[in-house]
Amino acid sequence: RGKPRNQQLREFLGRSKKQLLVALKEVTSGRGFDIILANEFNSLSGYQARLAYTITCLAYMHGAPVRRRNLNACLEGTDVQKANLLQNELREVVVPWKEGSEFLCPRHRVIANQVARETAPLEPKQHAVVTFLAQISGDITPQTISKRSPEYVGYRGIINFENMLDLFGENYDAIEPLYAELKACYGHDFLFWLQFGRAEVYFDHFGVGENYLKQSLGLREVGNFQAWHYMGVLFLKRARFQENPGLAASDAREGEEILRRQIAERGDFDPYPYAALVKHKLRYLKACHSPKFAEQLEDLFRTAQSGYRKHPFDDAV
Length: 317
Description:
Elements: H1 5-15, H2 20-27, H3 31-42, H4 47-61, E1 66-67, H5 68-74, H6 79-89, E2 94-96, E3 103-106, H7 109-119, H8 122-136, H9 142-146, H10 150-159, H11 161-168, H12 172-186, H13 190-202, H14 206-219, H15 225-241, H16 245-266, H17 272-288, H18 293-310
Antiparallel strand pairs: 1-3, 2-3
Helix pairs in contact: 2-3, 3-7, 4-7, 4-8, 5-8, 8-12, 12-13, 13-14, 13-15, 14-15, 15-16, 15-17, 16-17, 17-18
């Protein structure tokens, strides 16, 4: 808007390869784009079509197309009905990832993000997560993990707790049942227990969270720095809720020791232990009314300065 015609043409041509809907999203407020996708989703013929569309969007927003046989296995009906659904009802909505490929995807990653985050209702989205991750669990082996197969990439993205928050918001009642139902499929995987533990720590369920993080560390201790990181966060968070000052101080010390070890081992290239220590210890100091508050605050400030010098452009720091 407001540009000369030749500039408008140049802008349009530069985006045209991304499809008109995506161009509309980029150059407007996006409301028209959102309404179009919502209408498209709701106009699909039935629950199975909407489920298939949601599954492909969930996987593709995390960088993975869906293998046709895995998508078919998530759906109800005969083979003929499933083939008809993909060929006719979802035509031009769910498309081949590449020409002749056995993988399927939505038309564009921007569309996948919108459908998965906003368009798909809560319960079908929960059903899509559990059904798809349960179906692909048999395809996730050490060999496919090392090759970063689409199944592993999709699993790793969807199971990540930050992405669960992105999909479901701070809704514990929506998130916890998903992890609980998938334990039978992924209880052997350290990454699963790490993310389940993160969820419980986030919602201040410290006993359960500690148990799950320990299960993650029991399956893989060496190199499982994220589990140690969130164990440190857990102790510092729990310290604020302890009614016994001695238990609170003990938890705070243990959490700080873990995160300072992380700083010593990983601080040169990982800003998160700095940010976590400063954030959660500061909250603890404010809550516990320590007689050495000023001295401890000064020490924490020096830690923050050190983290900022090493990672001056990191948002968390």
